[in-house]
Amino acid sequence: MQAQPLNAADFSLIEDTLLKHGNDHSVLNPSELDGYFTALVSGPKHVEIEAWFPAIWGGQHPDWESPEEARQFFDLCVRHINTLARQLAEEPHAFVPRCEQTEHQGHTVTLAEEWCFGYLRGVQVANWPPLPTPQAELLGAISDCAEQDNFELPADLDVASHQQQVAELAPAVRALHDYWLSQRAPTLHAPQIKAP
């Protein structure tokens, strides 16, 4: 069960739980969580559950209504992080960041700010060391995208340029994953996380 990809109902439950228990310092939605997990499985070393799970909530565990509620959310997280780890290691070209979309000036626009913000959260939690210049530039492109304001897109937004920037995220993520994969010990390739 921990290897089964999440479906739409699972992501909806994740969103409801993040909204219910979130705060000013927590992950806000499934898009940000997807970016967060992507960075965790892409980095130089395995990150323990004890580090990454509280960081979803800004360092504090939620006041769960029941052990079942906590277990259900945790199990969904484990399934999704394992799916991402496996996909990036075995089918990297199938990887697509889970971004939200909106309508703007008659165009469908993919919004990546929150996904990128989650990715940077993952980089911080995983404590990535400094990168060589080519990889640092890739991470810089993700960081630049995280600083966009998706709440009020400007009326004169260059949609084509904006969407090109979003389209460049997946190749950047794959390249960063491949870089760190080449630096890891063989036993750390695509680790699978097991729920305790």
Overview of this structure, please?
This protein has 196 residues and is mainly alpha-helical. It has one domain: YgfB uncharacterised protein family PF03695 (Four Helix Bundle (Hemerythrin (Met), subunit A), Up-down Bundle). It is 57% helix and 5% strand. It contains eight helices and two strands, in the order ααααββαααα. It has helices spanning 8-21, 30-42, 49-56, 67-90, 113-126, 133-146, 159-167, 169-183; strands at 100-104, 107-111. The protein has a two-stranded antiparallel ribbon with strand order 1-2. Helix 5 crosses helix 6 and helix 6 packs across helix 8. The two termini are 14 Å apart.
List keywords for this structure.
Four Helix Bundle (Hemerythrin (Met), subunit A); 57% helix; UPF0149 family protein
Helix-strand blueprint:
Elements: H1 8-21, H2 30-42, H3 49-56, H4 67-90, E1 100-104, E2 107-111, H5 113-126, H6 133-146, H7 159-167, H8 169-183
Antiparallel strand pairs: 1-2
Helix pairs in contact: 2-4, 2-5, 2-8, 5-6, 6-8
Protein name: UPF0149 family protein
Organism: Pseudomonas weihenstephanensis
Pfam family, one: UPF0149
